[in-house]
Specification:
Rossmann fold; alpha/beta; 9 helices; single chain; 3-stranded antiparallel β-sheet
Amino acid sequence: MSTTDSEPAVRVRGLVRRFGTRTVLHDLGLDVRRGEFVALIGKSGCGKTTLLRLLAGLDAPDGGTITAPPERMVVFQEHRLLPWRRVWRNVVIGLRGARARDDAARALAEVGLEQHLDSWPATLSGGEAQRVALARALVREPKLLLLDEPFAALDALTRIRMHALVRRLVAAHRPAVLLVTHDVDEAVLLADRVVVMRDGLLAADHRVDLATTGDRSDPEFTRLRETLLTELGVTETGEQIPTPAEPAPSSTELHRAAP
């Protein structure tokens, strides 16, 4: 690992976000290095998307500090393509220059859609539209890539293909990545680290150590999956189990205690 890669691309300290009288994020701390893929999991309403929006600059905190590169892009669950613009113009929307079409073609080739350069979004499948959304994000060479459940609406086979594509693109471009997901398997198969959020705090932080990325047969996959499900309060059958009664440490304390 280079010195550059060992330095945090994202540094969050003491982050607080309130909505009225409800505090959604409590004294949250998090580092993400350049080239590192972090998956954030937790029950609905625990603050995952709030954190992502803050990192994206779409919302402002009520306390604490966020250090993040200005070159950042978000891929949402919905592709958000403009139906009145051809695919290549969707990829480079907001960009200027004589080489915009060439840049779009290069980005679309990376996601296997060079043949759809002049297509209309309405002619694409759901998986193809999400690949265009990835191309739109990566054509800008972001140093921080934020993924907000981008595979949730896809069928199982398309999701597997998208997982492989994202792993390859992240390895090639090496942004810092934060993925928000409800899918524990997805988190373990894609990420270098899986962080569990509970009640606005980062309650656990696990390093993923699979011999081969994406290998479900690795015993470490099964072990970590079971650990994460327990921490989320869910059994293999989907039955809810009690979460720990004692208060979780603050995210800043958890971060400082980590090796």
